[in-house]
């Protein structure tokens, strides 16, 4: 009941041979030289506008990047502080419990 049922693969009935590949040699006939190409066309106008950084936009980008770094840093520092406070509170609880257990053992 709990044994897996494996599918049975049918065996091929005859001899399986790969199809024959026939290689026919071809000859290369040199042709006439290609005519000289036409002069290159002038560069086409790009379909989308190029981004131009003015001093104002560069300053806005730097300010935005600084704000992102400060926010991410504040979040990470607050998470680290939360872990440290939790660890300290667990350590204080362990000391209190140990003290209670030792005091109870001395009374007996």
Describe the overall structure.
The chain is mainly alpha-helical. The longest helix is centred in the last third of the chain and has 53 residues, at 55-107. The protein has one helix at 55-107. It is flat.
Write the layout of secondary structure elements.
Elements lengths: L54 H53 L1
Distance between the termini: 60 Å
The helix fraction, in percent, is 40-55%
What's the overall average pLDDT, rounded? 83
Shape: flat
Tell me what portion of residues adopts beta-strand conformation.
under 5%
Summarize the biggest pleated sheet.
none
CA-based gyration radius: 40 Å
At a glance:
The chain is mainly α and 108 residues long.
Relevant terms:
108 residues; mainly alpha; 0% strand
